[in-house]
Amino acid sequence: MSKKFDITNIAKLASISLSDDEKEKLSNDLSVIIEHVQALSDLELDTNIEDVYIHPLEKVLALDDDTEKPSLTHDEAMSNAPKVSDGKFIVPPSLE
Amino acid sequence: MELLNLSIRELNKLFITKKTKPSELYSEIFNRSASSEAALHAHLSLFEETNLVKAKKSDERFSKSENVGLLDGIPLAIKDNINIKDEKTTCSSKMLSNFVSPYNATVISKLDTEQTIYTGKTNLDEFAMGSSTENSAFGLTRNPWNTDYVPGGSSGGSAASVASRSSIAALGSDTGGSIRQPASFCGLVGFKPTYGSVSRYGLVAFASSLDQIGPISKSVDDARIVYSAISGHDSLDSTSINYEQIELPFEKNATIGIVKELMEDGISEESKKEVEKVIDILKLKGYNIKEVSLPLIKLSISIYYLIAPAECSANLARFDGVRYGLRVDGKTSYEMMENTRAEGFGNEVKRRILLGTYALSAGYYDEYYGKALRARKKMVDEFSTIFKECDYLISPTTPTEAFKAGEKTNNPLEMYMSDLCTIPANLAGLPAISIPTGLSSNNLPLGVQIMSKPLTDNSLLDFSEMLEKELEFYSTPEGWSK
Question: Which regions in chain B score pLDDT beneath 70?
Answer without folding.
Answer: 1, 482
